Amino acid sequence: MSATGQDRSSRWQDIQKGLQFIQSTLPFPGPQEQYEVFIQSLVRNLFGEGNDVFLEGEWTRSVELYTEALNIAEYAESEDIIISQDLKEKLYANRAASYLNIGLHDQALEDSEKALQLNESNYRALYRKARCLKEMGRHQEAYEVVAKCSMAVPQDTRVIEMTQELAKMLGLKIRKAYVRSKLGNSDMSVPTIPPIGMGFCTSDGTFMQDYPPQLDLAKNPLADTHEFKQACSSCYIKTGPGVLDYAYHPEDHKCKKDLLLGRTKHSELITWKLIRPRPTKNQYMGPYYICKDVAMGQECRYLGHCTFAYCQEEIDVWTLERKGFICRENLCDLHGFKPKINLTVPKILQEHHGIFMFLCEVCFDHKPRIISKTNKDIPGLCSHPVTKHVFEEKKCLVHYLRDKTIRYSKIRPYFPHCQMDLCRHEVRYGCQREDFCFYAHSLIELKVWMMQSEKGITHEGIVQESQKYWNMDAYIPVRDVLFGPANLKMQFVCAQCWRNGQVSEPDKNKKYCSAKARHPWSKERRVVLVSSIERKKWTTVRCLPTKKPIPAQFEICLHVAAGKKCQYIGNCSFAHSTEERDLWTFMKDNNIADMEQLYEMWLQSQKPGWSEESSSATRDNGKQIHMPTDYAEEVAGNHCWLCGKNCNSDKQWQQHITSEKHKERVFNSEDDQNCWQYRFPTGTFRVCERFLKGTCTEEELCKLAHGDEELKEWKDRREFLLMKLAKARKDHLIAPNDNDFGKYSFLLKDIK
Question: CA spacing 20 to 30 A to 284: which of 10, 195, 465, 481?
């Protein structure tokens, strides 16, 4: 355990002992002076613990700790013990920050005013009071408060932004600030005041901006806790009906080593477990979960297609594999070291699709978000219709993906203190620290940071490489081999003749097959055959699966791999042979949509001089379909990052953020459903007494919790939804006075 962890653990033990003692009536074993030190130390420890949990994003917990400290401070006064005004001022100011992040503006306003009563020049309390008033729609009062704050910290960017925003709302003219030149006399220099929101005050009042410890990427993170082995279907044999009922028998045989097995070191269960390939069908960022069927000891109903893990070892590997920390091919390295991660812009775009571009950062960070590119008429400025910012000074790198919705992911600059891991708060309900967070806020940002840490590529270089990738300047090489994958031969034959055991190619005019029956040569009546160099056997290949999005890599069907017939009813989206997998991969990499397009390109390859023509053919039919211009349309107005919707007017924006569909997106997502086991909270947070007696007949319709575990989950879920609501309000995705949330309206009521 680190020194910081030990200090915090010791502090928490002191807090528990202190609370236990003051709740008793026992006399203090010492003089009054020691008792005063004991009480003052307890308040400071609670304050310090509250600050730490605040930095971790546990705002509800920080409120509890600050409240406990304030209650003990009040108790101390009854015991004639003095708690410093400075400490109480910080407690009120910091609790106001916690209330703000939760979305409880009334309580935050009250605490800010109490802090200002103790110290009217506390600029943090002024700023938080102004934020509360602004969120409550009291703009004139908010402007008066933030004006005082602006006099205390005139160069703070957040104070400046709020001042200008409120001035616009009130119709006031924004004046340019006078900036004094630097003085030569060092004695007259002004001390730097830390920006609001970039750190936190510790128990001794000092401002801290600690960076988390760096993660060592040179070593396999699982080397000390897990062990892995390669196997095949001949040595990893099924022993029962369950998906985990397998046994490893290392007999003398020529192992194909096409399966990865893993187990946890020093565990009671020493059985090897299969680590399946990670599902890549979506851009899921949340934690992986065990399949509910497997957890209940049953066979998975989606066997072969399940995107949930079957064991904890699988979760451990998938989590690190998705982040790019490990490569499964090197997990069996006994030394625990992994090769250098070779990430490039084309590799990132092949996995995540989309394109990198520059947008105006001021507009992008605006609440609500505004999408502004370069101005066509004045290239040096952004395209904002009113406030045109200097684009080169204010630009930021963004990854743009047009999938089911439009998604913009900001790529913040990489610094040595950046953590190569996903922010757990951003994944669940949105990180309140935003750009000041040390962790990556998306998978694409994490991959870019890793690439920058190795190659040192700049944001300008990333945009240039992205444009080259889509322009096909560097990724369509001239080929000297036949068309298709390098290890495969390919031919198109008559499907009807092939079913009868005959191989018939088309005639010269490509109208009929060359057999005596002269079957019509049409796209419905021809089939593609491939033969690998290893097997030298012609095999049919089915059409490319139409499932969207197309997976990053195709896998062999488990039934076929086990030597059985595929049991899937319909078109199985898993390959039924290695040749089929290789051809599908080739079609995906070259953006060949169907067999008809593959046939046309194959025909071109049969003509003399195809090596020159193939390059242009792939450009016409391949990735050139998605040009950077497709991603460069002009967008005006506000952008909802939750729904991927752009609004061109204030009226359209208000209609959108007050719609039921949008509010449902604020509180609910498909990934959230995996976190909860019990019913949705009813708003009444009590345990049903009839359920405890076994006489409750309402079952699922009962409005009370059926047990302490369900009640605990309801409370946790309420806090989780409050976090989402606070994030939506902060981003102005919910109207300030809108409290109509349907089944989520219970969030606005206190728990009784």
Answer: 465
Whether omega before 368 lies within 30 degrees of 0, making that bond cis, reads yes
Which residue shows structure tokens 């096909």? 472
Cis amide bond preceding 549, omega within 30: yes
Backbone dihedral angles phi then psi of residue 381, each to the nearest 5 degrees: -115, 165
Q: Is 707 left (phi over 0), alpha (psi -120 to 50) or beta?
A: left
For residue 172, give the DSSP letter: P
Report the C-alpha dihedral over residues 470, 474, 478, 483, rounded to 10 degrees.
-40
**Cα 679 from Cα 699, distance rounded (Å):** 11
Residues with pLDDT less than 50, the chain: 1-6, 181-195, 197-217, 335-339, 473-481, 608-635
* CB-neighbour burial class of residue 430 (10 A; exposed 0-12, middle 13-18, buried 19+): buried
Which residues lie across from 352 on neighbouring strands?
A: none
Rounded CA-CA distance 15/17 in Å is: 5
Query: Tokens standing for 564?
Result: 């059985």
Dump pLDDT digits (tens) for 392-419: 888 899 998 876 678 899 999 988 778 8
DSSP codes of every residue in 654-665: HHHHTSHHHHHH
According to DSSP, residue 220 is labeled -
* Residue 659, both tokens: 């719609």
**Residue among 678, 667, 679 nearest 742 (CA):** 667
Q: Report how far residue 385's alpha carbon sits from residue 360's, in angstroms, rounded to the nearest whole number.
A: 13
Please, are residues 547 and 566 in contact by the beta-carbon 8 Å criterion?
no
For residues 138 and 142, what is the distance between their CA atoms, to the nearest angstrom? 6
User: What's the one-letter identity of residue 724?
Assistant: K
Structure tokens at 355: 């394109």
* Upper half-sphere CA count for residue 428 (Cβ side, 13 Å): 19
Residue whose C-alpha is closest to residue 20's, from 73, 86, 52, 68? 68
Tokens 């609001």: give the residue.
196
Question: What's the CA gap between 184 and 199, in Å, rounded?
Answer: 30
**What's the predicted TM-score (pTM) here?**
0.49
If you write DSSP's letter for every residue of 375-417 in order, what string do you get?
-SSSTTBB--SS---BHHHHEEEEEEEESSSEEEEEEPPP-TT
